[in-house]
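Risk register update: the risk that structure generation would not scale has been downgraded. Supporting records follow, first protein first.
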Amino acid sequence: MPGFFEALSNLPPVPKRKHTVTVDGKVTEVDLQTKKMIMLKGEQAFTWKDNRIVEKPKPKRQGVTYRTLKKDKYGYSFHGADAHWPDRIVEGGFSWQIQSE
């Protein structure tokens, strides 16, 4: 195979792949690790700050509200003390009340 290795040595180098992302409508080239992180979390989780791509701060939880069963002036009486079987409404029974944290 004469000339095979000469032909291989004369091949042009393979260009490296460019990694681009779109953040806030602006397309930019980034390294592979940044591209993977943006693909994992989604482009909407990032923004531009001081000409750099940074992650948006996560919103803080305002407070959790949920309903709990508490004693009240008038409330349910449960059959066999099972909260899933209300029997009747009595004085001093239990009622569902909203509690916040």
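Supporting record for the second protein:
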Amino acid sequence: MWLQWSKFTEWVCQFFRIALSHESLVSFYKVNFQLTYNYHYSLTELDNMMPWEREVYVSLLINELEKEAKRAQNSHG
């Protein structure tokens, strides 16, 4: 039973890594740098994320940054 679950989990991880491998290596490192430097994620946290999980966090962060930019623009304009 455990061996089946382990193989299934391994397959799921590999599937998502391949399915979400559209991010370039340069982009991957740039995003990692920004997340560690500006948002205080650790590299361990980032490495332990599933690729889809990472994309969710990055897209949420992008949405927040866009909202902040709009608020700043509205307060200055």
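The longest helix spans residues 51-76. On this basis the risk owner (M.S.) recommends closing the item.
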